[in-house]
Structures are given as structure tokens and as C-alpha cells.
Design a protein that fits this description.
Helices cover about 45% and strands about 20% of the residues. It is α/β, with parallel strands linked by helices. The protein has two domains: about 15-230, Spore Coat Polysaccharide Biosynthesis Protein SpsA, Chain A (Alpha-Beta Complex), CATH 3.90.550; about 235-314. Strands 1, 2, 3, 4, 5, 6, 7, 8 and 9 form a nine-stranded mixed β-sheet that branches.
């Protein structure tokens, strides 16, 4: 545990937050991975958010077998959605650091040690993210890097605050449970927005506006693609709803950023608007939004000056 023992002589407690919903096949693997993680000061806080399958019973059975090996707080209740569940999990947690989990994914050994060490070494950062492997429902490896191979992200951007702001705004590439959060960060950004279906992007935009995100280039979890991932729906109406919600988030969060990122967010709102119009088969609107997107993207480059253009080339 070199490098992660503060003045108290004890490693800080990490609360692993697991919102669980209809993952009866995967949830025990998720919980097993917490035991396999060698970091010593940890607890599990898990909520079954109204599952209609056997997820709740699988969790209870796992606790019966392993509850003496790691502290666990388990709540089983009706469905409230992911944002409300995350807020409740954080409120129940005792740790100064909160590791965001998912009941269909699992941690990789050593990830907590690396992330805790980063935040202790960088007191100005509120969260640290890592990368993840991508596996299928049978744990067969599909990609060695979710950021690079699944989301086509340029990980070099994550080496600077300017690059992280640009990456969070223009290409969402944070997939799976890759985030370790300081508890006090939730107070600064007011937790997760329960008015949104998916709060991931909004949450990270609020963090990026404060230059609060750090990055370690290592796989800290396995992100599972299994055909029923809530965020990967193929239903057209649901996709349109999610895109409209994301477009509204972009417009609402513009005021948190200075230029050129304010203009870049406005450009992104038009890019999302073009996707909505395409799904609605309004081709004239697609052309209008894409023209605005191109113009505003170029304007953001001009407002960014030489430093911004250099960041885009690295």
C-alpha cells in the first residue's frame, strides 16, 4: 500500500457504490471482484433498484456467503432510476472516496490502489477516471481499451485540463465503472441530477468546468456489453429522447464554461440536434444543424487561439 497511507497511518476508506437492476446473471461477478481487489479499506453499498428478475435474491445469497469478508450495506426497494439511486448510495456510504460501480461490470485488481494513490497525490482533483476492458456476456475479451477501441477516443487529450474539457464536451468516452470520486466533490456539484434519464454527461460536464478531473491510463474495470445495456438501446423513440436530453444539457451547461468551450458546447448541441433530426427523417434540419455545427466548431478554434489549436494537434 505504498503511497496511499496518509498521516493517520491507515489507507482511506473506499465505498464501492453498486446500483443494481435486472442483472441476475452478472451481479455476483461484480461483487466477487470487490473481494478480488487487494485494496484493504473498502465497503460495498448496494441498492437493488426494483429489479424484476432474481437480482435481489442473488445479492442476498452472496452476502450470506461473503458478508463476513467485507462490510456490506444492502437495500432492496422499488425503482427510482439511476440518478436517484446513486444519490442514495452516496448518502449511505461512509468512505471519503466513492468508487462508482455497475452490477453488470466488474473491477480489475489494483485499480483502487492506483486511483486512490492518484487522488492523494493530486489534492486539486476531485475525481480520477481510468480506462476499461470490454467483455461480452461470457467474459470473452472484445476490446483492450473501451476509450480507444469502443469510443474511438484520443487518450492523449486526457493528459491536460484543456484536453479533458474538450474531450468531455465533444466525445463522451467514459464507459463503465471507471471513476473514483472524493465525497466532497458531490457537495460541490450537487450530486446527480434526478431530473435526467442519464446523468453521466451532465455530471462530468460540471466536473470539467472546475478542472476537477484526473486520468490514469490503465484499465481499472471490465465493461460488459451484453445486448441489454440500458445506455445502448436501439429503440428509436428512446434514442431521440436521450439525444434531446443531452442537447438540453449542453445548452444548460454553457454558462459554466469560458470561451472557447462555451462555443464548443453550443456546437455540440447542434451536432446532437442533427442526430435527432436524422432519426426523425427531417433531412433539411440535419443539413441546418450540421452547418451550424461546422461554423461554431471553427469559431471555437479561432477563439481558442494558438494554445487551443496546439491541443487539437496533440
Amino acid at each position: 500500500m505504498d503511497g496511499i497511507v496518509p498521516e493517520t497511518g491507515l489507507p482511506p476508506l473506499v465505498s464501492i457504490l453498486v446500483p443494481a437492476y435486472n442483472h441476475e446473471r452478472f451481479v455476483e461477478r461484480c461483487l466477487d471482484s470487490v473481494l478480488e481487489e487487494p485494496y484493504p479499506a473498502k465497503e460495498i453499498v448496494i441498492i437493488d433498484d426494483g429489479s424484476t428478475d432474481a437480482t435481489g435474491q442473488r445479492i442476498a445469497d452472496w452476502i450470506e456467503r461473503h458478508g463476513s469478508e467485507v462490510p456490506v450495506e444492502y437495500v432492496r426497494r422499488g425503482n427510482k432510476g439511476i440518478a436517484a439511486t446513486l444519490n442514495e448510495l452516496a448518502a449511505r456510504a461512509r468512505g471519503d472516496f466513492l468508487r462508482l460501480g455497475a452490477s453488470d461490470d466488474y473491477l480489475l485488481p489494483g485499480g483502487l490502489h492506483a486511483q486512490v494513490g492518484y487522488l492523494l497525490a493530486h489534492p486539486g482533483k476531485w475525481v480520477v477516471i481510468g480506462d476499461s476492458l470490454v467483455v461480452d456476456r461470457n467474459e470473452r475479451l472484445r476490446h483492450g481499451s473501451a476509450m480507444r477501441d469502443l469510443h474511438r477516443a484520443d487518450k492523449r487529450l486526457y493528459g491536460t485540463d484543456e484536453g479533458i474539457r474538450r474531450a468531455v464536451i465533444t466525445q463522451w468516452a467514459i464507459g463503465g465503472p471507471v471513476t473514483l470520486v472524493r465525497r466532497r466533490a458531490l457537495e460541490r456539484v450537487a450530486g446527480w441530477n434526478e431530473g435526467l434519464r442519464f446523468d453521466d454527461w451532465d455530471f462530468f460536464l460540471r466536473l470539467a468546468a472546475h478542472d476537477a478531473i484526473g486520468f490514469i491510463d490503465r484499465n481499472v474495470c471490465a465493461y460488459r456489453i451484453h445486448g441489454a445495456n440500458v445506455s445502448r438501446t436501439r429503440d428509436t423513440r428512446t434514442r431521440i429522447h436521450n439525444l434531446i436530453e443531452a442537447r438540453d444539457v449542453a445548452i444548460r451547461r454553457m454558462g459554466m464554461f469560458e470561451e472557447p468551450y462555451r462555443t464548443l458546447l453550443l456546437a455540440q448541441s447542434h451536432h446532437l440536434g442533427a442526430k435527432v433530426a436524422f432519426l426523425q427523417r427531417r433531412l433539411w434540419a440535419v443539413a441546418t444543424h450540421m452547418a451550424a455545427y461546422a461554423l461554431l466548431t471553427q469559431l471555437s478554434r479561432m477563439r481558442g487561439g494558438p494554445t487551443q489549436r496546439l491541443a487539437e494537434r496533440t
